[in-house]
Write a structure and sequence with these properties.
The chain has six helices and two strands, in the order ααββαααα. By secondary structure, the chain is mainly alpha-helical. The chain has one domain: Sufe protein. Chain: A, CATH 3.90.1010.10. The longest helix has 27 residues. It comes from Hallerella porci. This is Cysteine desulfuration protein SufE. Belongs to the SufE family.
Length: 149
């Protein structure tokens, strides 16, 4: 499995190759369409990402020291593909990692690659809330793992 840094470098290279701002949106839409989503039964209010314009769910699963993240948006007539693409991009980096790996990752990565340029304030806030929730889950499961040793 590639390290977080290796995946970030790949994403950085992809973003650097974009020749138009529309390339970023096309990339996020492709991620959204290819994202497997999650079982509808997991979409409970307690897993709702607060501050997100669309209804996004982030469900943690901690097994054998690894944090697995399940994310999806609510599907409907106004399917929030950009939000779903942003979530899929975050999972590309953080899913299947130890809490320590997540906590040691650069929290400014997405700003450094210019991802949030052009996002509406509500999408930008929602994405920040998603990242905050991922880091919070990593902190909680890191503490639980340390306590069980």
């Amino acid at each position: 499995m590639k390290s977080i840094e290796e995946i970030e470098n790949e994403i950085r290279a992809e973003f650097a190759a974009f020749t138009s701002p529309d390339d970023k949106w096309a990339y996020l839409l492709k991620l959204a369409r290819n994202h497997p989503g999650m079982d509808e039964k997991l979409k409970e209010e307690k897993f709702l990402v607060k501050g997100c314009a669309s209804r996004m769910f982030l469900v943690p699963e901690f097994k054998e020291g690894i944090l697995h993240l399940h994310m999806d948006t609510e599907v409907g007539a106004d399917n929030p593909l950009i939000s779903r693409g942003l979530g899929a991009l975050a999972l590309k980096i953080y899913d299947g990692r130890t809490p320590a790996e997540i906590l040691s990752a650069d929290p400014e990565f997405f700003q450094k690659i210019g991802l949030q340029q052009g996002l509406s304030p509500t999408r930008s806030n929602g994405f920040a809330s998603l990242l905050k929730q991922i880091y919070l889950y990593a902190k909680v499961f890191s503490a639980l793992a340390a306590r069980s040793k």
